């Protein structure tokens, strides 16, 4: 997600500041580069978090009040938008601009999601795009599904991530006082937004504090983490590549359904500046686009960037795998027919 899917603030790692501004080290032998150093503190915390989330899921379906369930879904949507419409599309890619009220709202949503501050999340996501599928990519998908989903949070960062971290320009985001405020007070704001308020508010309508904590806080938080991580894992593994067959990201509709339009990943990595993160014009699988468009109508979002159909079609015909609807099967180039057949074995002439 999630991003996407920046590690929560409690995930232990070495300080990025140690290598800030330094030249990249001499590449180590492959065995040394890929040596995993497990952070057992993180493993333990994630195990207990997921056990608590499973219990919270049980309470959600069996004991929680209906209004508590609705509130949990509402928090899930707000959390998701804090990542997708906020940290990702607004701040990491600057695909649209937001006025102060929207920036404050999305920062609150992002704090609710607890995937670290916007400044840290956007930095890692810019690393992911600049060095995609290399050792400088925080969740390098070429290292397997588990690693790109959650394993990257259970081990020390690869040295190349720290060596190249200084190449990411964050001056545009550091200039935003809202983001600086969130970063400065994150360890106070995060517990309040992510755990304390979601646990307290349901008690106002008679829900038990026990149910509220495990359902609205733990279960909701862990669920948002995992669906966000699917963008790093599943959306880099299973699906078509209609826009660029030479990269790992794919089009994955199920991921887009649960992560508000973020699963159209082959499009996104081909055109990362498009606020839609997809070619789709509708909202069926793109709740984030609906939210941004709504904010645009009330004047809180503006300068929405998109890609013209002409440019998309040209790119599809130049680098796509032949699965895009712009191609009639009989008219597609031979090499793209082969690529499409590999992606979709059942497809024949």
TrEMBL record:
- Cite a GO CC annotation: endoplasmic reticulum membrane
GO terms for biological process? unsaturated fatty acid biosynthetic process
What's the protein's topology in the membrane? Multi-pass membrane protein
InterPro entries given in the database record = Acyl-CoA_DS, FA_desaturase_dom, FADS-1_CS
Q: Name one GO molecular function term.
A: stearoyl-CoA 9-desaturase activity
Q: Would the keyword Isomerase turn up in this protein's UniProt record? A: no
Q: Where are the transmembrane segments?
A: 43-61, 73-92, 185-205, 211-231
CDD domains cross-referenced by the UniProt entry: Delta9-FADS-like
Q: Keywords for this entry?
A: Fatty acid biosynthesis, Fatty acid metabolism, Iron, Lipid biosynthesis, Lipid metabolism, Membrane, Metal-binding, Oxidoreductase, Transmembrane, Transmembrane helix
Chief site of localization? membrane
Q: Where in the cell is it found?
A: Membrane
Required co-factors: Fe(2+)
Fatty acid desaturase domain location, by residue?
66-272
Q: Outline the segment boundaries, as ranges, of region: Disordered.
A: 1-29
PROSITE patterns in alphabetical order: FATTY_ACID_DESATUR_1
What's written under domain?
Answer: The histidine box domains are involved in binding the catalytic metal ions.
Q: Which family does it belong to?
A: Belongs to the fatty acid desaturase type 1 family.
- Protein name according to UniProt: Fatty acyl desaturase
- The species is Grapholita molesta
């Amino acid at each position: 997600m999630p991003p996407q899917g920046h590690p929560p603030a409690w995930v232990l790692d070495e300080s990025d500041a140690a290598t800030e501004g330094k030249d990249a080290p001499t590449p180590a032998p492959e065995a040394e580069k890929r040596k995993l150093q497990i952070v057992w503190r993180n493993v333990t915390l994630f195990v207990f978090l997921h056990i608590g989330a499973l219990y919270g899921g049980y309470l959600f379906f069996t004991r929680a009040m209906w209004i508590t369930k609705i509130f949990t879904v509402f928090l899930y949507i707000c959390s998701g938008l804090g990542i997708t419409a906020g940290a990702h599309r607004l701040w990491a890619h600057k695909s649209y601009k937001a006025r102060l009220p929207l920036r404050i709202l999305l920062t609150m949503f992002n704090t609710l999601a607890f995937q670290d501050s916007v400044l840290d999340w956007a930095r890692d996501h810019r690393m992911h795009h600049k060095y995609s599928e290399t050792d400088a990519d925080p969740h390098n998908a070429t290292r397997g599904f588990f690693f790109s989903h959650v394993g990257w949070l259970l081990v020390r960062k690869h040295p190349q991530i720290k060596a190249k971290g200084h190449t990411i320009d964050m001056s545009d985001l550091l200039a935003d006082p809202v983001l600086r405020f969130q970063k400065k007070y994150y360890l106070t704001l995060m517990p309040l937004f992510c755990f304390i308020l979601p646990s307290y508010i349901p008690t106002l309508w008679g829900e038990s504090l026990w149910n509220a904590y495990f359902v609205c806080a733990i279960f909701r938080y862990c669920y948002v983490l995992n669906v966000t991580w699917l963008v790093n894992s599943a959306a880099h593994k299973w699906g078509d590549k209609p826009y660029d067959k030479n990269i790992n990201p794919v089009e994955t509709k199920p991921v887009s359904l649960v992560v508000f339009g973020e699963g159209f990943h082959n499009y996104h990595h081909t055109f990362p500046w498009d606020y839609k993160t997809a070619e789709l014009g509708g909202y069926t699988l793109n709740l984030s686009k609906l939210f941004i468009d709504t904010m645009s109508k009330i004047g809180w979002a503006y300068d929405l960037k998109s890609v013209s159909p002409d440019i998309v079609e040209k790119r599809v015909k130049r680098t796509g795998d032949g699965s895009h609807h712009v191609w009639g099967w009989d008219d597609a180039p031979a090499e793209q027919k082969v690529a499409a057949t590999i992606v979709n074995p059942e497809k024949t002439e």
